[in-house]
Amino acid sequence: MTSSAGSSCTSTPRQKQRRSSRLSCHTPGRDSRVLSALGDFQALPLEIFQMVLNYLSVKDISMLSMVSKTISSRLINYISTSSGTRRLLLQDFHNPELPGRKEGASILEHYRSLGLLLKRCTLLLPTRDRLKYVHKVLSGVSCFKLNGCASPLHCLGLQCYGVFLQILTAGWDELECHRVFNFLWELSNLARKVQTVVSSKPGSARRLELRIRLYCRGVLLPPGSHRSDSAFWLTRILKPWPMVNQARLLYIIFGPVSSLDGHVVWQKMIEGPTDETSLKGLADAIKLLYGTEAREWTADDVISLVDELSVLPQEWLMENNARLLLLSGNSICFTFLASKAVNGRAVELARLMVFMALVCEKDLYCMDWAVKMMQKVCKVFSTPWERNNFLQCLENTFAHMLMDMLQAVLAGERDEEDSGFLNLFHLVNAQANFHKEILYLAMGSSSSS
């Protein structure tokens, strides 16, 4: 028994030689499979392989990454090298040409291709590991950080970061995109920064407001995004905050800014009538949240947001309210007006309707739109008395506004542009055209009957 046990535990020199031979045959087989995955590149040393990559475009390298897992891992290593970083992380973000010109477009296209390259190289990694790797690659680019650039208004860095992330995350499911947002939110310390601007007096943290605006618009809401993607990211930005803070944040991101220094202009809506350009960003954001893409927002949510928006930093001029509603589209406009009708706010509704007619006259919209909107709103009232009371308020508002404007003109209250007389001229025409459309409607229906 002892001899047998000893023979089973002790290898002879011949047995050791056979086992060694089997091991030596196995290892080259495994290496050959690895080498075969490299294709024709298996003949090149790693240094030469990386030198070849320097002659390929980013799109070509991206295509190459899909050949095999082995090549993809080599490319990941290459991206992390100093030569790969110099080659791929272009930082010519301060070219004097604006985005859309040749130079600006080319660097944006470069980072779009780079996003696709890293998307393909990290395809097999979990989302958390992908984000860590991407952050490691991009962490050296200061212009990708919220406070990283000394001249943010003349920098394409955040826009490049935005198109990079747009391509990287395209097709990811909602849970993965939540992780991306949380990762960026924590990385940029956005929660604390947003808390600072929404809890302080509007305009008291102008530089921080500007930084948050540029970061959100450039990185999270880059131009050219699909509506569903924009709705998702804008919802993530706004939803953690109370409604009043949501309105503040919406104005910071999409409100009018100074053409001189890019800072948010908080007094724009209360100092005088504004133009469509100043309101277009806010109107587009409201349409986005009211649309079918923003599943987490109800009509009441959006109406409350518009209400909060119209008192920032103080109550807006009614003409600016009316212009914002017109730009926001028929659906949100009707819903907003109908809510006032349902809540018995006939006087406020009448004033808003008159200013809508004035905006239609000034901005050359068809006046029959305003009349048809009034018709729809009249159907919301539950009793004939409520409807007639609203129509009486409407006519009274026209009369009172005309008298106020006329008195101002007769009193000689004029500015350089003679805006008082011009407003009176527009309001008289607005009233005439508004009632003309009502007469057309009434006479048309009476003749048809």
Structure summary:
This protein has helices spanning 2-9, 13-37, 46-53, 58-64, 69-80, 82-88, 102-121, 127-138, 157-168, 174-187, 190-199, 206-220, 227-238, 243-254, 268-271, 276-290, 299-309, 318-328, 330-342, 346-362, 367-378, 384-410, 419-448. The chain has 449 residues and is mainly α. It starts with a helix and ends with a helix.
According to DSSP, the number of beta strands is 0
Q: Can you tell me the residue ranges where pLDDT is under 50 for at least 5 consecutive residues? A: 1-30, 96-103
Shape call: elongated
Whole-angstrom Rg: 32 Å
Mean pLDDT: 87
Give the structural class. Answer: mainly alpha
Strand content: under 5%
What distance lies between the first and last C-alpha atoms, to the nearest angstrom? 119 Å
Furnish the topology, listing elements before pairings.
Blueprint: H1 2-9, H2 13-37, H3 46-53, H4 58-64, H5 69-80, H6 82-88, H7 102-121, H8 127-138, H9 157-168, H10 174-187, H11 190-199, H12 206-220, H13 227-238, H14 243-254, H15 268-271, H16 276-290, H17 299-309, H18 318-328, H19 330-342, H20 346-362, H21 367-378, H22 384-410, H23 419-448
Helix pairs in contact: 4-7, 7-9, 9-12, 11-14, 14-17, 16-18, 18-20, 19-21, 20-21, 20-22, 20-23, 21-23, 22-23
Region (Disordered): 1-28
Biased composition (Polar residues): 1-14
Protein name: FBX47 protein
Keyword list:
3 domains, FBX47 protein, disordered N terminus, 449 residues, 23 helices, FBXO47, F-box-like_dom_sf, mainly alpha, ARM_FBXO47
